[in-house]
Amino acid sequence: MSRVVLITGGSRGIGAACALRFAGIGDKVAVTYNSTTPPAVLTDAGVLTVKCDVTSAESVEAAFVGIEEKLGKVEVLVSNAGVTKDGLFVRMSENDFTSVIDANLTAAYRVSKRASQQMLRARYGRIILMSSVVGLLGSAGQANYAASKAGLVGLARSLARELGSRNITVNVVAPGPVATDMTAALGADRLAELTAAVPLGRMATVDEIAEVVAFLASDAAAYITGAVIPVDGGLGMGH
Length: 239
Fold this sequence. Notes:
This protein is α/β, with parallel strands linked by helices. It is 46% helix and 15% strand.
């Protein structure tokens, strides 16, 4: 039987790759988007696209209600939506800090809490939070982003302890540099710096991240919870 899968921030990059991966194995998939219109490849694959601002509890609730009406109760949640507002810490405004925390960390709390309500009743669920190697290593100019991504680890491990007795697993994926439209805009010199720091000497593809997410949501990973899975080419070794 196919499951109902929800991926927040699924209109491009890693989120879209995850959506296509789940749709490819027969799951019923919904993605949320906010500012970026989902590409036709998602709708062509049968993916339900739902506009949602994950920083709004009301918008999150409306999105879940719509998904439940059209597809059923969410059984697999991939919290992938996020933003960056980079800048040196001494010059970072309070809004730049708190808005990134809200979009990356508090939003994961919102969608996980809403999804877990039905998962608890069903005594089954898979929650996967998308972090970053930056959350473990730190990154100059990204204090807000790194803090938000590190916070996902504590959130996931706390939820794993609370929800485990109901057959709900909660795990974290921590990608390193990934080849997306966003990283492509960084320029050749910056891309060379990023890949030079990676032991494997290249960036990940979005499909490589999606494969790990799909594994964590599978029956093969039923005994994995509270884990942080690095998909970073070795960049974060030892953390």
